[in-house]
């Protein structure tokens, strides 16, 4: 005789959070010899951007996250600067900037730029998430929105695109949450009544 029916309702939520990403930089058209490797790692202080770009002309080069992770046919396919909040171009430390505005990288006399910065605006998840988007290294310096002309507030007048790549995932963490576990104890009468309703 069935005296009790125990039903356990278990709901689970699984979601993944990106922890780190990587981009390999090169010129898909083969015109420049610029190459690089940059990682983006979540830390308590922001996203740590670290890497090396080589084959550059000595000096400053604009360095941005662009909207699209498309490099088919060349770096122009990455479109404009990643700008989900529809702001104007600026410096990394400005409150008004594109999310993708990471400023300039500096190449030494041998054409090598070492990157080691922490940025609090870009993110790996959510609205400012950069995973799957493009990174572009420019021919010229980014004027950080202070060039005094219209383009300065769009592109920073950083000129051509000498290398680009798509930010891929290195590591992700999976969170699993469970909630609502219920146990129903039903007597025989309840079961009969329940069956009667079907
Ligand atoms: Cu750019
Ligand atoms: Zn910008």
UniProtKB/TrEMBL annotation:
Binds 1 copper ion per subunit. Binds 1 zinc ion per subunit. It catalyses: 2 superoxide + 2 H(+) = H2O2 + O2. SUPFAM superfamilies: Cu,Zn superoxide dismutase-like (SSF49329). Keywords: Antioxidant, Copper, Disulfide bond, Metal-binding, Oxidoreductase, Signal, Zinc. Residues 34-167 form the Superoxide dismutase copper/zinc binding domain. Residues 1-16 form the signal peptide. It comes from the Eukaryota. GO terms for molecular function: copper ion binding; superoxide dismutase activity. InterPro entries: SOD-like_Cu/Zn_dom_sf, SOD_Cu/Zn_/chaperone, SOD_Cu/Zn_BS, SOD_Cu_Zn_dom. Its cofactor is Cu cation; Zn(2+). Its EC number is 1.15.1.1. Pfam families: Sod_Cu (PF00080). Belongs to the Cu-Zn superoxide dismutase family. Destroys radicals which are normally produced within the cells and which are toxic to biological systems. This is Superoxide dismutase [Cu-Zn]. It comes from Phyllotreta striolata.
């Amino acid at each position: 005789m069935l005296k009790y029916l125990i039903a356990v309702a278990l709901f689970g939520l699984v979601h993944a959070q990106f922890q780190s990403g990587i981009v390999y930089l090169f010129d898909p058209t083969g015109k420049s010899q610029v190459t690089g490797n940059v990682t983006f790692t979540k830390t308590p202080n922001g996203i740590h951007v670290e890497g090396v770009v080589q084959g550059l002309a000595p000096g400053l080069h604009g360095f941005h996250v662009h909207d699209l992770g498309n490099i088919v046919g060349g770096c122009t396919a990455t479109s404009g600067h990643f700008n989900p909040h529809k702001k104007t171009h600026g410096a990394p430390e400005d409150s008004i900037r594109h999310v993708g505005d990471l400023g300039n990288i500096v190449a030494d006399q041998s054409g090598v730029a070492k990157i080691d910065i922490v940025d609090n605006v870009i993110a790996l998840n959510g609205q400012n998430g950069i995973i799957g988007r493009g990174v572009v290294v420019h021919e010229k310096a980014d004027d950080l929105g202070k060039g005094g002309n219209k383009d300065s507030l769009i592109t920073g007048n950083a000129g051509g695109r000498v290398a680009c790549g798509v930010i891929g995932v290195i590591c992700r963490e999976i969170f699993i949450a469970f909630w609502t576990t219920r146990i129903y104890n039903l007597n025989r009468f309840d079961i009969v009544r329940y069956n009667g309703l079907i």
